[in-house]
């Protein structure tokens, strides 16, 4: 029967050209949509690598008085940190750079090691960073006060960067460009939102100067008033500063929403397209069934069952879909083959499969009702009309 | 082979009601070649459709090869049409998008068969109607007589025990008509196929075993 359907469709190829084109384009759009969905879903499923609950993200900007010495500013920040840490309800405090978790800023740095060069997110954070975010160290240790004496600047790199530079080898002790010595490897922190991709990252030690951005980890039993107490403490140390305290939890929600905006937009647009294509296919199948009543009546006259007719109509639609689908797949596999975007091949393959299945299901669904109607054709009536 | 008892057929549309057949009793014996005649619109095609299970009568009983067909379900009806009955239609009803060979194979597609068997049987049937050299043509590339012969090949390819022919020579000139008639006569004689043929041509009808005349949906002879 399949061969019969192929023959039938091949003989009518000219009539089907436009439908072919429509199906081909639909497949490519579906492929794009599913690539995006698979990509985002894959990112969503990778572990976050840190704990965002009960963490406050604080910005305390201060017009630093002119002529203030660096040492005095360092001292100011250190005193503030000490006071905060000693507050009841505070578990840990860490100064961080402006690209801290769930902010909109990022800062990249070109790192090199042994002729390999990698674009990495460059973070600055102090000694208590890992403790504040409960980030897990996979190798070595986080940097600390003892590193002050070292001639090289201590850095911690994330898994992703370690993998790029060293593969499975141990990075601890190696020296990167800029005289930076690796003291530890931390688990990837998915700090740009739950749908963001893991990127290589390097953490460098904050040891001096005025710091205006920090994270505060609260204890499990922290009193509700802790936040206002923190505010008071900051204002006490930095009078006249403009201070903003946000929950990392809230920032995460906002960041995730931002990431979903293009996804939702694309889903809506492609949803309309899919609806259009579905109506198109439905119309074409419906039209073809009505034009071919004589043929279908004849098939019943020579022994086709009602189910056989429905299967034929749906089968024809599926066979019809297969050729443009095949062309679409040939085009789509070029993406992983040519490394057109920096996405893993598995993402593309999953997207191709999903798009193909989706298109087949859509087409079967659209052909089913006309196919059912076709099955009800009475042979005598249909043949009489011809 | 075919027994019709008190067959009634009424066509109802929104405005009119047509009594196409009125109390037809007819028996066709195994191996018989029967012709049906009558004026246009008297119900000949309707009667043939009912015999071929293409249409259900409004009343009465159709028995084919000993089975009462009234209560057959869709699947069984399809099986019956496929295995026992070959239909030749007034206006050929070939599928224009399929080549001659594929058209002839059509009934075999609805039974268990391999592609090779289908090719062979279809080729054989086309040989019988003298069209062995037209297998790759499309129906639109054939003359009326050739189309009718393709339709005959399609009707006989499944070796049915009954052939129902609705004016198989109606659209053909007399030479072509005689040729088609010869094929039918041979099928009846050599293979013992039971044939019921509707015709407007007295000459053709005279070559068959028996003639039944219809008038206004009723049997007059
Ligand atoms: N599907 C239908 N709906 C309504 N009326 C029909 C239908 N088919 C046939 N009829 C009517 O039934 C009557 C018999 O029609 P039928 O086709 O059997 O005639 P016929 O004897 O085969 O005529 P012809 O010699 O012209 O082929 C006609 O009056 C026709 O108008
Ligand atoms: Mg007729």
The structural domain count of chain A equals 2
Order of strands, widest sheet of chain B:
6-7-8-3-9-10
Q: What is the CATH architecture descriptor of chain B? A: 3-Layer(aba) Sandwich
Separate helix tally of chain A: 12
Shape of chain A: elongated
What characterizes the major β-sheet of chain B? 6 strands, mixed
**Could you spell the SSE succession of chain B in H and E letters?**
EEEHEEHEHHHEHEHEE
Envelope shape of chain B: globular
Largest interface: A-B, 28 and 32 residues
Q: What name does the CATH topology of chain B carry?
A: Rossmann fold
Cα distance, first to last residue of chain B? 20 Å
Distance between the first and last residues' Cα of chain A = 25 Å
Please state the average pLDDT score of chain B: 91
Poorly predicted parts of chain A:
none
Strand content range of chain B: 25-35%
Number of strands of chain A: 11
Number of strands of chain B: 10
Describe this structure in words.
The complex is a heterodimer of chains A (386) and B (221). Chain A is α+β, with helices and mostly antiparallel strands and 386 residues long. Chain A folds into two domains: 2-45 and 255-385, no CATH class; 97-205, no CATH class. Chain A has twelve helices and eleven strands. Chain A has helices spanning 2-11, 17-45, 70-85, 129-133, 159-166, 226-237, 248-291, 293-301, 306-332, 334-338, 345-375, 379-385, and strands spanning 55-61, 90-95, 108-113, 116-125, 137-140, 153-158, 175-176, 180-186, 201-205, 213-218, 242-247. In chain A, the strands form two sheets. In chain A, strands 3, 4, 5, 6, 7, 8 and 9 form a seven-stranded mixed beta sheet that branches. In chain A, helix 2 packs antiparallel against helix 7. The radius of gyration of chain A is 31 Å and the shape is elongated. Chain A starts with a helix and ends with a helix. Chain B is α/β, with parallel strands linked by helices and 221 residues long. Chain B has a single domain (2-219), classed as P-loop containing nucleotide triphosphate hydrolases (Rossmann fold), CATH 3.40.50. Chain B has seven helices and ten strands. Chain B has a six-stranded mixed beta sheet, with helices on both faces. In chain B, strands 2-1-4-5 form a four-stranded antiparallel beta sheet, with helices on one face. Chain B is globular. The model of chain B has no long low-confidence stretch (mean pLDDT 91). The interface between A and B is medium-sized, with 28 and 32 residues. Bound molecules: adenosine-5'-triphosphate and magnesium ion.
